[in-house]
TrEMBL record, chain A:
<feature type="transmembrane region" description="Helical">
    <location>
        <begin position="359"/>
        <end position="382"/>
    </location>
</feature>
<dbReference type="InterPro" id="IPR011864">
    <property type="entry name" value="Phosphate_PstC"/>
</dbReference>
<feature type="transmembrane region" description="Helical">
    <location>
        <begin position="30"/>
        <end position="50"/>
    </location>
</feature>
<dbReference type="GO" id="GO:0006817">
    <property type="term" value="P:phosphate ion transport"/>
</dbReference>
<dbReference type="InterPro" id="IPR035906">
    <property type="entry name" value="MetI-like_sf"/>
</dbReference>
<dbReference type="InterPro" id="IPR000515">
    <property type="entry name" value="MetI-like"/>
</dbReference>
<keyword id="KW-1003">Cell membrane</keyword>
<keyword id="KW-0813">Transport</keyword>
<feature type="compositionally biased region" description="Polar residues">
    <location>
        <begin position="68"/>
        <end position="77"/>
    </location>
</feature>
From TrEMBL, chain B:
<dbReference type="InterPro" id="IPR027417">
    <property type="entry name" value="P-loop_NTPase"/>
</dbReference>
<protein>
    <submittedName>
        <fullName>Phosphate ABC transporter ATP-binding protein, PhoT family</fullName>
    </submittedName>
</protein>
<keyword id="KW-1003">Cell membrane</keyword>
<dbReference type="GO" id="GO:0005315">
    <property type="term" value="F:phosphate transmembrane transporter activity"/>
</dbReference>
<feature type="domain" description="ABC transporter">
    <location>
        <begin position="6"/>
        <end position="247"/>
    </location>
</feature>
<dbReference type="InterPro" id="IPR005670">
    <property type="entry name" value="PstB-like"/>
</dbReference>
<keyword id="KW-0067">ATP-binding</keyword>
<keyword id="KW-0472">Membrane</keyword>
<dbReference type="GO" id="GO:0016887">
    <property type="term" value="F:ATP hydrolysis activity"/>
</dbReference>
Amino acid sequence: MSSQNPTTFSFTKESLKKQFRWSEFLAEKIISGVAFLSIAIIFLIFIFVFKESLPLFSSSKTVEKTEIQVTSTTQPETYGAPTEDLEPETYGTPTEDLTAIDVVETNELEPETYGEAVEELTVGTEEETPKITETNKEGKNNTWSTFLSCEWFPVSENPRFGLIALLIGTLKVTIIAMLFAGPLGVLAALYTSTFASKRAKEIIKPVIELLAAFPSVVIGFFALMIMATFFQNLFGYETRLNAFVGGVAMALAAIPIIYTISEDALSAVPKTYTEASLALGASKWQTAFFVTLPAAIPGIFAAILLGIGRVFGETMIVLMATGNAALNSANPFESVRTFAATIGSEMAETVFGETHYSVLFFIGSLLFVFSFGLNALAEFYVKGKLIKKIQGK
Amino acid sequence: MKDIKIEVNKLSLYYGEKLALNEISMQIPRNKVTALIGPSGCGKSTFLRSINRMNDLIPDVKITGEMLVEGVNIYDKNVDVVNIRKKIGMVFQKSNPFPKSIYENIAYGPKINGIKDKKQLDEIVETSLRQAAIWDEVKDRLGDSAMGLSGGQQQRLCIARTLAVSPDIVLMDEPASALDPISTSKIEELVHQLKEQYTIIIVTHNMQQAARTSDYTAFFYLGELIEMDKTKSIFTKPSKKQTEDYITGRFG
Ligand SMILES: Nc1ncnc2c1ncn2[C@@H]1O[C@H](COP(=O)(O)OP(=O)(O)OP(=O)(O)O)[C@@H](O)[C@H]1O
Ligand SMILES: [Mg+2]
């Protein structure tokens, strides 16, 4: 610690003089520097994501999008026309990728008509240029007002960015996933921490945690190829890929998180509580449910919230397993499209500066705000109210 | 010693290979306080815990011999351990209230025994807290967390919690070891009152406490029961040299 030899140490003013331990000083600075850096990075990511959605908030940048609005006032939905030469004009983007996404969407959004409108379209696209400036303002307002609509048709003639539709999709998948993952994860944790023999625990814990290491694309693939067919045979519903399949697949991704954190929380409950309960003549189950579980509730609550966060932001699995059609229905066996999947599937197809592009970034910001809110909720609600409510004031 | 509540016959207990109790035989009288004394590590807690089968929780514990409570061997295969513990309550050395409210701590036992009526629960909570001489201190804050009580209050709360399930036998493992003299004397007084209704077995390191509170005293040494007799006899004319050495403090 210092150059002082303990045996010669004496209480003189000299020996008690403040010392500068510069290795400790350096270590402290480095550690706090790293901590600040990570905070700064998170902050910067948010700024960046939000910045890209900014054009939505100012009127000057919406020009490109509004042009399409003008032409399509009376027309039926006309995107995805399979004729190749038409497409680039309709969207104003000569990228080849567009064809890919169009085909996907046409398959799923059946009500939309396409193909027949070929001729009208050509007319429309020729006319659009002169009208841009006039409808500029209105177009921007339209973008905003479509946020609350229930239709997500970002690349149609009359683009609508119904975030509600995506919200419904996201919530549906999240709820379905949590209905499975929550009870399963927590109960599995309760089992391993209170009932399982040491041997069983040594097997179960690593196996469930291994699931966390699965790349989500593998889970998605499994859901797409096997679970979808299995559930369809089981329940006999129509749409093969739907919110239910996606939700169950997402549960697979969320279970390890919920399990691991709950298990830690449950194992941290002091043995003395268990003993006290058993000594009162409570059975093992009663002890587990009425003493151990409530004592671990803050940790379990945090586990659930983290699980929700995982489901919320998961992209690959939903992209592969939910069918990706932004329908509005409460039916769990219909296709859905989530926020994250929307960004994942459409980002590559948008053009920089387009409204669609900005909207995707806006969704990104929303996701960010959501997860921030979830964490804040976990932090403040758990530390404040919940503990008091369960453990007395 | 006519009215016998517990009869122990050649009870031995092993932690794995290690012998912790060696052929203990004794008789514990009904509605009396029996004190267990002896140097640290001699097996007092082990013996106490074997009376309500708390040792079942420890892996690799092996028990031979008989523990007859009201004539029934509690180590018999057909005996349900949960029911035993309902009848044989235990207060631990370190107070261990649940992280719940004071009310919930007491009501927990009755609730798991199927009592749902709020009025009845209120009544049990009040009686138990009164019995444990803590009612006046907590009656205005039953909804507060039990963790906010002082150590002495927590221990009395734990006693009340044990009484709330109305056991026959109350086992206490050094209930006052971490408490100040005032809390200690409260608990001793409590023990004295409780023996009207309960059979009490108490482990203590405090000779005065044993002398003050108990009717019978058993002296343990190295896993063996050296002798057991009326407390008065043990403290005035012990029959074994080891006992005398121990209680007069000339031990080891
Ligand atoms: N869980 C256990 N596993 C293995 N050995 C144990 C266990 N608990 C106690 N022992 C051993 O059994 C012997 C008796 O322990 P016990 O706790 O009954 O002593 P005690 O008389 O209560 O001591 P103290 O007065 O210090 O509480 C000791 O040698 C102890 O090391
Ligand atoms: Mg002990």
